[in-house]
Design brief:
single chain, alpha/beta, elongated, two-stranded antiparallel ribbon
Length: 526
Amino acid sequence: MKKLKHMLRPALMLLLAALSLTAFITPRAPDSPLTSAAWDTVEFMSTEPRMIFSPEHLRRTENHIVQRLEDAGLPVMVTEHDLVPEDSILGADRLKLWVENLGFSPDVIESTSTRNIYSYIPGTSDKFVIFNAHYDSFPDSPGAADNATSVAALLESFIDFHQRGEKPEVGIQVLFSDGHEFGLGAGQFVKEHPDLLENTIFALNFDVVGNGPILPIGGANEFSNQFFKAVSNPTGFSILADAHPLDERFFAKADIPAMSLVNFTRPWHYHVPSDVIENLSPGTVTHSIDVMSRLMEQVSQTEWAEDFEAEAPTTHFMLAYHVFIQYGGVVRSLISLLAIVSLIGLILLKRQELQISLKGIFTSIAGVVLLLILYAGISVGAFMLFFRTVDHHPYLIISGLLLAVLLPLASYFYLKRLARFIQYETFAISIAGVFLTLGLAQAVLMPGTEYLSLLPVLLIAARLLLPQNKILYYVSGVLLGLLYLPLLFIMTFVLGMALPIPALYYVLFIILFYVLAKNYPKSTPS
């Protein structure tokens, strides 16, 4: 019976995490007459790979997009750009290495160009919002989800918006960009055509939207308010807001606020030959059209543009990928202050009882930092190693899966050994200090994500002040399950080892769970 009680809390956490993953089920969108045309475009685009160094099908795709826009009576401009290796976010050396790995001579770079397709609907004001989607694909991948679905949904939503004859207050621009998979994407267009973007106040980038519900990831936190207002059944996760920059970075460099909207929930079909239309469903295309149409309606209003330009970053406290509480800078500052006061108050109130030693605090923090540095090194090392291969993503996923099993075991035994030399309360307060430092840094660098670090400070303080409170014990378990386990799902199954930030939170979650769940004897030496 006693063992059963000990298993109840972990079982409850796993159940809640499993339920939270239902957020990855694509929300049912209203049936749309646009789905059929979009599906035809996906089918046309994904018959074979679309790569800049073997551009036959890429040019056919370009002609298809241009023809659809011209048939709808929309203005179209195709811009051509010489491939400059230094413009690639991969770097010139890595780009050349990749070209060689694909079996091409590095000389092919000099004879290669990228072509971007631009169109627009003018508004009654001089302001514009631009929607971007890349139309090339990864080498050897037909690219149905990445990124034919984004292109098809954006193309049909844009044409439909135009054909309804409504005059927007804020103009709509669209860009179908080329060379994304080699680190170019919208970058060359932004660099060479600043005149077309002079009055652009925001950019939305769509990538890999064919696998499930669209998530905001990377870029301007301010726009997340508008995303959650416009989209029905929105999903998201705060830690990803600045963790994985995509093509929105090119607009941000030109001082145009930007955000990427993506979905990575089926990584086994990402950057591989199995990314074909047979592995999509019309429901994901309908959902993508619904999201893009709603966003076009939202951003084409002058009221939105004025609100956005004056808007401060907003925190979206998310449980299981769904917005639970939304609050602004004042509340965020109060939460930071509460975490600081809680930790200082805990030390002052319990300093006599706890007998905290500086040596114990130093040992605890040094041990945790060592663990974080080690895992960050493994994460970056795995990414750099596997990125040299053409089909790198499956290797990243495999590395994530292996470490998802090995890291908790290794961390448990490491922490157990560390705890033999440190008093439990000293160790717990040291961990709270680490979380507080991270939370304050996030409040400045990644506003909207800091609660993931500040909430643990409050939980640890409550754990030490109310050690026998069973309600607190289970509440903390529920919060941990809803907040952190979905993040671990993203890191392990979706992004593999590609992102150090979610990877580091994996370690922090293990440490936090260890601190809150473990009952150390107070007589442990310090």
